Amino acid sequence: MVMKTNGFVDGILPDELKKVLRLVGSEWGDVVDDMESLQVIPLKGAMTNEVFQINWPTKCGNLDRKLLVRIYGEGVEAFFNRDDEIRTFECMSKHGQGPRLLGRFADGRVEEFIHARTLSAADLRDHEISALVAAKMREFHNLEMPGPRTVLLWNRMRDWLVEAKSMCSAKCVKEFRLDSLEDEISMLEKELSHDYLDIGFCHNDLQYGNIMLDEETRSITLIDYEYASFNPVAYDLANHFCEMVANYHSETPHILDYNKYPGLEERRRFVDTYLSSAGKQPSEDEAVLLLHEVERYTLASHLFWGLWGIISGYVNKIDFDYMEYARQRFRQYWLRKKRLLGSPDNHVNGYVAYGTGSG
Fold first, then answer.
1. Rounded Cα distance, 82 and 105, in Å
2. 10 Å Cβ neighbour count for 169?
3. 75 closest CA partner among 131, 123, 6, 2
4. pLDDT tens track, the chain, 359 positions
5. Which one of 185, 229, 236, 280 is least enclosed by Cβ atoms within 10 Å?
6. Which Pfam families is this protein grouped with (predicted)?
7. 322 Cβ neighbours under 8 A, 6+ residues apart
């Protein structure tokens, strides 16, 4: 066995997880007494948790059962409330979204294994797959979820800023200009908050690793709801566009290539599909306005994940250069701020002049 951290040392499963696996197995009519019969496969690309696929042979021996074990990352309480995330997960299951929750233990949970493939970085640029993702996002945003439809983005960033400053040295605070970020967050909230913006239940972390595709049915499943909350849907789209510059399965997963940021035509195609997926063709003004707001919300995405990177650099032990990732996100914020919030000269026919190969 090849599991490691949080009790997975030298291939030894924690007793709590063994009990959950035996219970799940018995419900399926299997007997999982021999823990050495389990095949454990680490799944790469997760940056908050560690994720493993677990297989075991059934009684007849010609079929393997599969499930997924999620080991919670260290220090995640700095980012979100785990109980809230579990409630979201269970509510999603009731809506027929994502995997079912099969069991919980102290350091993680056991989930249904979805028989679909996780997207790759390149898949996000495939026109057909991108259209499926756009339609799925619209469906996700329209889900009836518990709680007030209150935007969480700005207060969450303020909380993260307090957390980051409490961890950072004076040198770190100066490098990342953390003392100025309270004003930046307040400025963005004022500039980007409009009554006409749609508020929906947003995933808030729609990178390719959180999107699964069933090749047979061509259906999309969104997974991992740790950061999900009500927010402007423009923010969720902006965050998805920003994720198109990343490849978390490369030899340098923390390096972002902003030459891969989607150009105007690609963004317009995505927005048109998103808006029309509800069965009504959007007007030109509607599409242009959403595109404009999405580009401005990329600034919030950069600050959000920049702060996440700083905190993760202190609390998370996953092999990923979080601090360099944070530097890149903050660099993009300061580079793009004037262009995206500047004078009308920075806009062409209603669009922000973001360039076809810039981000």
1. 13
2. 8
3. 6
4. 333 344 454 455 777 888 888 888 877 777 666 666 788 888 876 666 788 888 887 766 556 788 989 888 776 666 777 778 778 888 888 888 888 888 888 888 898 888 899 999 999 999 999 999 999 999 999 999 988 899 999 999 999 999 999 999 999 999 999 999 999 999 999 999 999 999 999 999 999 999 999 999 999 999 988 899 999 999 999 999 999 999 999 999 999 999 999 999 999 999 999 999 988 889 999 999 999 999 999 999 999 999 999 999 998 888 899 999 999 999 999 999 999 997 444 443 333 433 433 33
5. 280
6. Choline_kinase
7. 254, 309, 310, 312, 313, 316
| Ramachandran area for residue 52 (φ above 0: left; ψ -120 to 50: alpha; else beta) | beta
Its pTM stands at 0.83
What would the two tokens of residue 25 be?
A: 């197995």
> Which amino acid is it at 184?
E
Q: Is the CA virtual torsion 100, 103, 104, 105 positive or negative?
A: negative
- CA dihedral (37, 40, 41, 46) in degrees, to 10, reads 160
Beta bridge partners of 154: none
